[in-house]
Amino acid sequence: MPTPSMEDYIEQIYILMEQKGYARVSDIAENLQVHPSSVTKMVQKLDKDEYLKYEKYRGLILTEKGEQVGKRLVYRHKLLEDFLRIIGVEEKNIYQDVEGIEHHMSWNSIDRIGNLVQYFQEDQDRKEALIKIQQQTKS
């Protein structure tokens, strides 16, 4: 099981691979706002734990295990963003809030939030009723 820090790296690598077809140490460092040397150390650990294959000066690729974890982490992130939007969290706070909570929830809780998000997405009337309740509590 990856640590929260490992999850951040796997998620970022997965996103870069999806967007660009590759993930360089410099891109990972820039996106995570860490030093390239920190990325290299983590990439070596992720290689050892079989989440990716890394060859010095040649690059890295996610293993099947790493891709599965990365896909699930990206799903979790997007799901939590959707959930916070549905419950009326201000857009400017969503990214920071997701980063603060995503590593502290069980996958069971994530799955239940997924059910709730689906419930509200399937019927516009449900969303409107929730928005009405939110507006009443603001007054």
Any overview of this molecule?
Keywords: Activator, Cytoplasm, DNA-binding, Manganese, Metal-binding, Repressor, Transcription, Transcription regulation. Mn(2+) 1 binds at residues 8, 99, 102-103. This is HTH-type transcriptional regulator MntR. This protein is mainly α and 139 residues long. The protein has 2 domains: 4-69, Arc Repressor Mutant, subunit A (Orthogonal Bundle); 73-138, Orthogonal Bundle (Diphtheria Toxin Repressor, domain 2), CATH 1.10.60.10. It is built from 7 helices and 2 strands, in the order H-H-H-E-E-H-H-H-H. A hairpin with a 3-residue loop joins strand 1 and strand 2 (59-62). The chain is elongated and about 60 Å long. The protein starts with a helix and ends with a helix.
Task: Give me the secondary-structure topology.
Elements: H1 4-20, H2 25-32, H3 36-48, E1 52-55, E2 59-62, H4 64-86, H5 91-101, H6 107-121, H7 124-138
Binding site for Mn(2+) 2: 11, 77, 99, 102
GO molecular function: DNA binding; DNA-binding transcription factor activity; manganese ion binding; protein dimerization activity
Subunit structure: Homodimer.
